[in-house]
Specification:
The protein is α/β, with parallel strands linked by helices. It is built from ten helices and 16 strands.
């Protein structure tokens, strides 16, 4: 074995023996941006709905080792769900093979970049609501930087973008054209001192963007968000704290929880909500199943409780009043709904 996963196994075992445990364990596995380490596990975090363990692993052999070790744990210690970053499924191993190894857990694909980007945008939006800041400085040229660009612009803030190199400038040319971001102000290092910013969001992937040399350009306290890990040097952070700034590194638990709930809701919808049935000669559809004209739409095919309307055959809904023949079909479906409630 080339890695030491004893801390992970010990943490899972300890959690399983907790007397007050009332939440399921969810494991997220990624290899996105792995540069310096082969394996990282930073413990188990608790959020509103679940316990979350986040694992980073670089090589396929090590991934298989960890999954086999989790599968060998007692049932109570195994994770209920395992989410594999799309990078793993695209570059290392197919999801079907992962499911064969992790037989006791429900396995899904998730998108690390999307979850990380959602965390950044949600955090900025929440602080914007709390602090009512007006100016924001963005930095970075990663995939995450590109994903958050439009959502940050949509907040309506006076937005600046720090472009210290040609690669960043080239990226911005395409983004500005794509999103018609004519009001965006692109600035270089020499311009930083000309402006004051209420918020700084730097999203380069595990690389320093603002270091000791940049500290001299900032003279006002702000909210500084390291959205890419290691984007601020120790000297820059020290200067910002001296100014009274609030400095935050992204914690993506909220976005991961949202992602988990969305996936589970979708799974339940596919298993129980979507479908078609016939009751007393009347065709009934639900959950987005495409209905033919005059088929009755309900809220849930397994446990219908509400009539949404009548399909028009092209993805839209007909609403009352209905003609006599169509109303008769609706009345038959109402009988089914009353049976379901009984």
């Amino acid at each position: 074995m080339t890695i030491n996963s004893s801390d992970l196994i010990e943490a899972f075992t300890k959690l399983s023996k907790s007397k007050n445990r009332a939440k399921d364990l969810v494991v997220y596995v990624t290899n996105y941006g792995m540069k310096e380490h082969k394996f990282l596990f930073n413990g188990i975090k608790e959020n509103i709905s679940h316990y979350i363990a986040f694992i980073e692993v670089a090589e396929l052999a090590d991934l298989k080792t960890i999954l086999n070790e989790m599968e060998a744990l007692e049932e109570a210690a195994r994770p209920k769900y395992i989410f594999f970053d799309s990078n793993i499924c695209r570059n290392l191993i197919h999801l079907d093979e992962l499911k064969l190894i992790s037989r006791s857990s429900k396995c899904f694909v998730y998108f690390e970049v999307k979850a990380w980007s959602d965390s950044i945008v949600n955090l900025v939006a929440d602080y914007y609501q709390r602090k009512e800041f007006k100016t924001i400085l963005l930095a970075g040229k990663s995939e995450i930087s590109k994903r958050i660009f439009k959502d940050i612009l949509d907040l309506g803030l006076e937005t600046y973008y720090y472009a210290p190199d040609q690669a960043t400038k080239d990226m911005l040319v395409s983004l500005v054209e794509l999103y018609d971001a004519k009001k965006l102000k692109v600035i270089e290092t020499k311009d930083l001192a000309k402006y004051s910013f209420d918020c700084i969001v730097s999203s380069e992937l595990k690389a320093n963007v603002f270091d000791k040399s940049h500290a001299q350009y900032f003279s006002k306290s702000c909210l500084a968000i390291d959205a890419g890990i290691n984007n601020f040097s120790a000297e820059f952070i020290e200067k910002q704290f001296a100014l009274g700034s609030e400095i935050i590194r992204i914690d993506n638990r909220a976005a991961l929880s949202s992602y988990l709930i969305s996936i589970l809701e979708t799974e339940d919808l596919i298993d129980n909500g979507i479908g078609k049935l016939t009751y007393q000669g009347v065709n009934i559809v639900a959950g987005g199943y495409m209905g033919l004209e005059n088929e009755i739409i309900v809220d849930n095919i397994s446990k219908p409780s509400l009539i949404i309307g009548v399909a028009n055959g092209a993805g839209k809904v007909k609403y009352p009043p209905y003609d006599k023949e169509l109303q008769a079909k609706v009345d038959i479906v109402k009988q089914l709904l009353n049976k379901s409630k009984a």
